Amino acid sequence: MSLADQPHSSHPSGILFVVSAPSGAGKTSLVAALLENDPALSLSVSYTTRQRRPGEIDGSHYHFIDHDRFEAMIETGAFIEYARVFDNAYGTAEASLRETLEQGQDLLLEIDWQGARQVRERFPEAVSIFIVPPSLSALEQRLRGRGQDSDAVIRDRMGKARDELSHWDEYRYLVVNEHFDQALQELNCILTAERLRSVHQGLREQDRLRLMLGA
């Protein structure tokens, strides 16, 4: 369909960015920096049954709920994706995600590879990004540097990391977080490139294009 044939009221829906990484790869810090510098991007707040960590805010970092409520939301089909990781559960509410995108707001969803696979089944247009550490030894150093997890938990996370890393090729983009500033720049480039695709930019600039085309 040409631009002249499109309804004048057409407006672009938001872009859904899905970001995954092994625990300790630096995903949370990179996502925080992206959100701080990009007012056009907002974070999809997931539900989880895990305990709050120091500094986390309910409704901002996660919606912290108990296992019974989480199971009830599964039963009612509230989640577009959910997964159980390290004896805790995580899920994304579909209704709020769709509402945000329909309002034209770009949305970032920070989830693991299992959740990303479920989201892509329902949102094949989602832009998926996988972040990896420069090495497994660097990953272990970062986990220990947090000072939040026991040796047993760290061993479990390191064992899980190899399995998580094996799913890198399911994603559209791959970013190696060896140097934070470079990784952040690469993520910003991905966001810019996706926003400039004609399917999105054409609708944002439809009035300008109609004028030039005499439509």
Give a written overview of the molecule.
Helix 5 packs antiparallel against helix 6. By secondary structure, this protein is of the alpha/beta class. The protein has a domain at 9-44 and 105-213: 3-Layer(aba) Sandwich (Rossmann fold), CATH 3.40.50. It has helices at residues 27-37, 67-75, 94-102, 113-122, 136-146, 151-165, 180-195, 198-204, 206-213, and strands at 16-20, 41-43, 47-48, 63-64, 79-85, 88-93, 106-110, 127-132, 173-176. The chain is built from 9 helices and 9 strands. The strands form 2 sheets. Strands 2-7-1-8-9 form a 5-stranded parallel sheet, sandwiched between helices. The chain has a 4-stranded mixed sheet with strand order 4-3-6-5. 25% of the residues are buried. Strand 5 and strand 6 (88-93) form a beta hairpin.
How big a fraction of the residues is strand?
15-25%
Q: Count every beta strand, where a strand is a DSSP E run of 2 or more residues.
A: 9
Largest sheet: 5 strands, parallel
Query: Helix coverage percent of residues?
Result: 40-55%
Provide mean pLDDT, rounded.
89
